Amino acid sequence: MFNKRRVPCGLTVTLLFSLQSVSLSAAGDCAPYPVSVNLNNVTLGNTTARGVSLSVGSPKQSFAFLPQWPLNSTFVYGTDGYCGESWSEAGCRTFRGGAYDSSSSTTYKDAPSNHIEASPYPDFTWGKDDLIFNSNTTLLDFPIGIARSDWGAQGYHPQVAFGLGRNSTILNSLYTAGHIASRSWAMFWGRTGGTANTQQDGNFVFGGFDKSKASGDNYTSDLNYSNKNCASGMLVTITDLELNFPNGTTASLFDGMQSSAILACIVPDYPVLMTLPRDPYFERFESLTNESFSYRGFGVYYYGMLYPNPDSIYTGDLTVTLNNGFSVRIPNDQLVVPNLTIDPSTGSLNANGSTPELVINSIQQVNQGDLPQLGRQFLSSAYLMSNQDSNTFTLWNAALEEEENLVAIDTNNKPVDIYCAATPTSTSSSTSSPHSIGNHDKKLSTGAIVGIAIGSAAALAIVAAGVFLVVSKKKKKGVVRVNYYPTAAYRDPPSELGPSHMEPHVPNELPAKPPSPSHRFANIQEL
Ligand SMILES: *[C@@H]1O[C@H](CO)[C@@H](O)[C@H](O)[C@H]1NC(C)=O
Ligand SMILES: *[C@@H]1O[C@H](CO)[C@@H](O)[C@H](O)[C@H]1NC(C)=O
Ligand SMILES: *[C@@H]1O[C@H](CO)[C@@H](O)[C@H](O)[C@H]1NC(C)=O
Ligand SMILES: *[C@@H]1O[C@H](CO)[C@@H](O)[C@H](O)[C@H]1NC(C)=O
Ligand SMILES: *[C@@H]1O[C@H](CO)[C@@H](O)[C@H](O)[C@H]1NC(C)=O
Ligand SMILES: *[C@@H]1O[C@H](CO)[C@@H](O)[C@H](O)[C@H]1NC(C)=O
Ligand SMILES: *[C@@H]1O[C@H](CO)[C@@H](O)[C@H](O)[C@H]1NC(C)=O
Ligand SMILES: *[C@@H]1O[C@H](CO)[C@@H](O)[C@H](O)[C@H]1NC(C)=O
Ligand SMILES: *[C@@H]1O[C@H](CO)[C@@H](O)[C@H](O)[C@H]1NC(C)=O
Ligand SMILES: *[C@@H]1O[C@H](CO)[C@@H](O)[C@H](O)[C@H]1NC(C)=O
Ligand SMILES: *[C@@H]1O[C@H](CO)[C@@H](O)[C@H](O)[C@H]1NC(C)=O
What we know:
six-stranded mixed sheet, single chain, PEPTIDASE_A1, Cathepsin D, subunit A, domain 1, membrane, alpha+beta, binds 2-acetamido-2-deoxy-beta-D-glucopyranose, transmembrane helix
């Protein structure tokens, strides 16, 4: 079906480059090629960190970004990563996923702004620099915040981040510049087991998804912002959690309590598979697997549970079932992993198999009532796509194909597999044009589009009218969205974290109050 919403990009690009005569049919049925970025061990000087591999500035500085909610802007840590005194520069760089040195980027510009990200985010120094996705796609003069403090997110959300909140600058800029067909994205975390054959790079796709990572039927649901503790809007209901023992038998952590489903929020950067209320679910896990946990990990799988003895680990899988029967089986090699920590003095990552970690954060005491979260280890086995324009998110079982097969997704969440000939692709390969593309795209107003179109052929004018309608429709829709966004969703990081909250680690006692960042969310009553 002809989709008018795709016209603005095709039209804009065509007019901008005035390459050859306009091909309306091509502009109408095509979409920009999705922007795919590696999600892997990013090299940061002499260390590495896992994240979405984006570069900033000229010459390029590497970063391991993670997405965050409700963040809208994109931020980095500067040469001071605020890790505390016991961390070296190299250790902090690994922990933060990079350290931005604006003074060594020739494209950096100061861009003071009174823009503030709502709580819990810290103050930023605002600047602009080029954000490089891959060889096809660069956003020029992209606004970037440089954090001016640690903000108490500890090991939960430690890294440089691009915001995928409801007014995400990265999605809006890519969309406005015609780089993506809709404000959609898809994430495969990859696999991070203890051995080479249980490790795989992931990828992060803007404007579509990687079909080769999606297997079987999908689970699609509306983004739902009604729960103020779920800023991502990706609320799911877990109806069963089942242990799959190696001998083929299964046992449910729900133990017949099928009526008490767990409401959970998908938080794709959260460092473990999931948080799970201790009573009764985690206690049931302990009794079914004959294990009693007393220690937490403070490494990369922050606040997971440590096995005291590698000989007594659970060797089965865990199957998560959602409300309509969709289920994802997390294999043992992604569920129980070596304790992976950053050496604070060298920044190297050390995997320690003598205290394996179960990537489940048992929530108890003050956190018992928190909304459970499904984190990035869930995305080792599930593939996730989200589309702000269609207001939906989609899950599949993850397929482990290495080869990419990208599919663009339009604003109605429909796949489009015809790509515009004049996407920014063909132009950014030439060395000088990217700067002008970015600048022009940003400045080209609806009026300009319509104005140029009127000067063109009659056919063009008709399309322009379509564009105009679409743009005004979009504006209206935007207003509606803003209306139902909760205003008081977030609390400041808790003061009870004490002086240690500046440090990316905390005391090593299980019963101690878990300094969960979910403290910054109000407790929810539904559970
Ligand atoms: C992101 O944008 C939405 C919509 O404008 C806004 O409600 C929300 O507070 C913003 N997030 C932050 C962290 O400022
Ligand atoms: C750049 O775009 C072309 C198609 O337009 C695609 O074939 C190629 O794989 C893209 N390169 C990257 C790095 O995404
Ligand atoms: C979205 O963010 C832009 C700045 O990036 C701001 O000008 C605009 O008012 C915001 N829109 C909403 C609805 O919050
Ligand atoms: C999800 O599945 C439905 C029903 O099979 C299908 O119509 C839809 O296109 C799928 N969504 C995506 C994004 O593939
Ligand atoms: C959002 O989720 C809540 C809680 O699960 C549910 O009651 C509500 O109907 C949902 N709203 C929409 C629009 O789906
Ligand atoms: C399978 O293993 C589980 C856990 O060790 C055990 O509880 C169960 O009895 C075993 N089932 C059979 C049929 O051996
Ligand atoms: C459970 O673990 C304890 C020691 O941790 C051991 O003595 C006991 O035999 C185990 N029980 C089973 C059924 O494996
Ligand atoms: C990286 O280099 C710094 C010095 O610049 C050094 O202190 C640190 O130990 C090195 N780390 C690794 C993992 O080699
Ligand atoms: C990525 O880094 C982790 C942690 O250091 C390591 O265990 C893993 O082997 C690395 N993966 C690849 C593909 O290099
Ligand atoms: C692994 O952890 C154990 C227990 O915490 C510790 O004794 C051992 O020294 C560690 N090994 C390495 C290589 O760090
Ligand atoms: C995790 O491993 C590191 C070294 O790799 C070790 O220093 C640390 O003590 C381990 N954590 C626990 C709680 O055993």
